[in-house]
Every structure is written in structure tokens, then in C-alpha cells.
From TrEMBL:
SUPFAM superfamilies attached to this UniProt entry: GST C-terminal domain-like, Thioredoxin-like
Domain called GST C-terminal: residue spans: 87-214
InterPro entries with a match to the protein in the record: Glutathione-S-Trfase_C-like, Glutathione-S-Trfase_C_sf, Glutathione_S-Trfase, Glutathione_S-Trfase_N, Thioredoxin-like_sf
UniProt protein name: Glutathione S-transferase family protein
Start and end residues of each GST N-terminal domain: 1-82
Pfam families on file: GST_C_2, GST_N_2
Length: 214
């Protein structure tokens, strides 16, 4: 039984897609059309009751249903790829940066930008455009502040925690990619990191497969 990867092109699942291709693992790709409501269909909720992406179904039929668990499973199952540094301190830094990307950039920032209606209590009425704009603006502020924090943490050269590409880089990349698509400026070191990751042949391949020009 091959790995089954449930993904949405251009979403956070792009980071996992990059990790899978980096490891050169065979897998079946299943596209989840979120605007069409695929993530809420009974057949998908049976696999992932949370109704989220990404999801990775393993050889034994069990499912990993969030970015962090999938990334850690891949790094620990295939240690020769060094997606998680061997040094405990660097490994901890990689996980810390991964969580910062998932929680602060994505969860607190971009979620407000992409799904502003979630943050508006309208009492059943359709939320006004001004309210949506305010939530979106707040999201952009959170993202810009988070990138400011990363600017102080990322090295001038190499990847997030050293010379080797890691799970942290995959998580940071999809947020940097979103920033480019939404016109949010990246500070110098963050921009340099984004450009280094995007220049990787595997990343260019993944973006092309997901329908983006590289």
C-alpha cells in the first residue's frame, strides 16, 4: 500500500509535498478542493475527522492529519535525509521555527487574511466589507511582525538552522510563498531564505506540479 497524500495546491500542504519529493518517496496524490467543500464530505471526514489538510495515510492505513505530525514522521522515519538535525539543540530550533510558521504566521496571520469572516461575529447577518477589511489588515500586521521576528533569527546564509534543508524550511517556505502572492514584503534575510528555497530543483518541480510558474 503506497502512501496517500491529501493536498490542496498552493496551500500549507505544499510544504509537505516538498518534503515528500525531497525524500523521493512514492505516493498517491489526492486533491482536496476546499472551495467545493471536499474537506467536509463524509468520505474525507472518515479519513481526517478534523476536515483539514494536509493528510498523509501511511502504509498501515493510519492517518496523520496535520503538518507538524507529518513533517516529524517523515524526518524521523527517514533520518538519512537530515530533515531534522542530529544535534538536539538544532533539532529543537527547527521544531520551534516550524511551530512559529504554523501557529504565528499561518494560524494567527494568514488565516485572518484568507478567511476573515471567521473572526466576525455578525449575529447571522452578512458581515460588512469594512469589518472584513479590518480583520485582513490585522492579519497582515501579524504576518509582517512575525517576519520581523524571523529576520532576527534566520542566518545570513544557508537554511533555517544550518547548511541542510529541514522541516523548518518547508514550513517557512509556504508562508513566504503566500506573502509573495499577497503583496506582503519580506525583510532581507527572510527574502534571501525564500529565494534559496525556491531555487531548489525539488521546490521548482513541486510548484510546477501544483500549477505555478517557477
Amino acid at each position: 500500500m503506497a502512501l496517500k497524500f491529501y493536498m490542496t495546491p498552493g496551500s500549507c500542504s505544499t510544504g509537505i509535498h516538498i518534503l515528500l519529493e525531497t525524500l523521493e518517496l512514492p505516493f498517491e496524490a489526492w486533491i482536496v478542493n476546499i472551495p467545493a467543500g471536499d474537506h467536509l464530505r463524509p468520505e474525507y471526514l472518515k479519513i481526517n475527522p478534523r476536515g483539514t489538510i494536509p493528510t498523509l495515510v501511511l502504509d498501515d492505513g493510519s492517518a496523520l492529519t496535520d503538518f507538524k505530525s507529518i513533517a516529524l514522521w517523515l524526518a524521523q522515519t527517514y533520518p538519512r535525509a537530515k530533515l531534522l538535525p542530529e544535534d538536539p539543540a538544532l533539532a529543537a530550533q527547527a521544531v520551534d521555527l516550524l511551530e512559529f510558521a504554523l501557529i504565528q504566521l499561518h494560524g494567527e496571520g494568514f488565516t485572518r487574511i484568507f478567511t476573515s469572516e471567521r473572526y466576525i461575529s455578525s449575529g447571522g447577518a452578512k458581515p460588512g466589507q469594512q469589518l472584513k477589511d479590518d480583520v485582513t489588515s490585522h492579519g497582515r500586521e501579524i504576518v509582517e511582525q512575525a517576519f520581523g521576528v524571523l529576520e532576527k533569527r534566520l542566518p545570513a546564509e544557508g537554511y533555517a538552522v544550518g547548511p541542510t534543508f529541514s522541516i523548518a524550511d518547508a514550513a517557512l517556505f509556504y508562508n513566504e510563498f503566500w506573502a509573495e502572492k499577497t503583496g506582503i514584503p519580506l525583510p532581507p534575510r527572510v527574502l534571501a531564505h525564500y529565494q534559496r528555497v525556491r531555487a531548489r530543483p525539488v521546490v521548482r518541480q513541486v510548484l510546477a506540479e501544483e500549477g505555478y510558474r517557477t
